[in-house]
Amino acid sequence: FQGMGALEQAISLYIPPEMFRQENRYAKFDLDLIYSSGLREDSTLHIMINGTLAGSVPLNNPDGKTFADYMVQIPMSFFRAGHNTVSFRAIMKPFRAAKCAPVGPEGMVTALLASSEVTIPSGHKHYILPDLALIMDDMFPYSLAVEKGEKPALIIPDPRNRHNFEAAVNFTAMFAKRLKSPLSDLFITDQISKDFRGDVIYIGTLDSLPDDIKKVLPLFGSLNSLKYLLPWKKEAVLDIRNRITDSRLLVTQFEYPDNSTRTALVITAMKPETVNSGIKLLESHASAKLSGDTALMDTKTRELKTYSIHRQFQVGRLGLQEKTGNWLTSRPEYYYPLLAIVVLILGLLALLLAKRRKKIRNEEE
Fold first, then answer.
1. What is the maximal distance between C-alpha atoms in the chain?
2. Residue 69: what are its φ and ψ, rounded to 5°?
3. pLDDT at residue 267, as a whole number
């Protein structure tokens, strides 16, 4: 910054929505800066967040000064989910002495060095999914994928159908609004390759869904063959099957088949017009009421019923414990035998310990 008055430079900063789930947190600005001599004591460097004054650095030494790691903490409440504008506004006023002429504009300089850093507090280490409430709140976990530079795939199996296409357009608008990011953060296609490893969103009729997705839904196959559903939730699955009609929209989230921590969201119905009208209701009516991992909504009566039928898994910055837990719960054919073996080993150890104690007592007697 060089000259007299208020001079401003701005940068753009994207903050994922999940960063705002915890209160009383601060962004840290570690500033390295230099300002010249000859500035009046009320000169300052303002930090503006989205046009609002959030912090400042005094430029009040008439001899000039150099700062290294000058820390300014700004509450996260000044920021918003999505893209933020951070502005640095240098207000430099010339120093006037009784026998000296004021410093000219060319001699008034404040330099903010490139070594300065902005640190945004991280979100939770990991999150437990599936959870429809998180999706309708800020499109989590898709916001997490965008933060990592990945693009979730919005798959429309039959885009030639007008209702399916309109449903996709409505969902895309809702996605951008909830995520507070551009539409380019969503990869839209009618099918994905086997090599795709990102999160997926399916919008379309039941009969248009691919087979690997159908086998996870509670509507197809015998109850004993639904290996991705919690085995003690059979009554809930039967209730969904009894309730599904032409006017009801099914919304369900689960871990993508055979792929740990990859999330799938399916919005489907028997008829494409139900899919379209149902997505409009999700935005205007049901978003605040969704919970669990599966919801069934009547697009005529607006009746909404929610369920929790899928296995839970964790996403985010996972340690060894979380990764092992995900691997085991996604493979019940290994999980339950291993659990039985662990219980058996613990039982044998307890038995051996009891025998040893008994033997010690007998020897003491």
1. 105
2. 55, 45
3. 92
Nearest-5° angle of CA 174, CA 177, CA 178?
85
- Who contacts 113 (Cβ-Cβ below 8 Å, separation ≥6)? 32, 33, 34
CA distance 315 to 293: 15
The confidence score (pLDDT) of residue 248 equals 92
Backbone angles phi, psi at 133, to 5 degrees: -65, -35
What is the separation of C-alpha 346 from the centre of its chain, rounded to a whole number of angstroms? 39
Mean pLDDT across the stretch 51-65?
89
The Cα 303–Cα 301 span in angstroms is 5
Residue 285, strand partner residues: none
Report the candidate in 277, 278, 227, 220 with the shortest Cα–Cα distance to residue 251: 278
Q: How many Cβ atoms are within 10 Å of 109's Cβ, its own excluded?
A: 19
Structure tokens at 226: 């639904």
| DSSP secondary structure letter of residue 300 | T
**Which pLDDT belongs to residue 259?**
59
| CB 126, CB 318: distance < 8 Å | yes
- Chain segment 186-221, per-residue pLDDT in tens: 788 888 887 888 888 999 998 888 888 887 787 776
d(CA 307, CA 33): 56
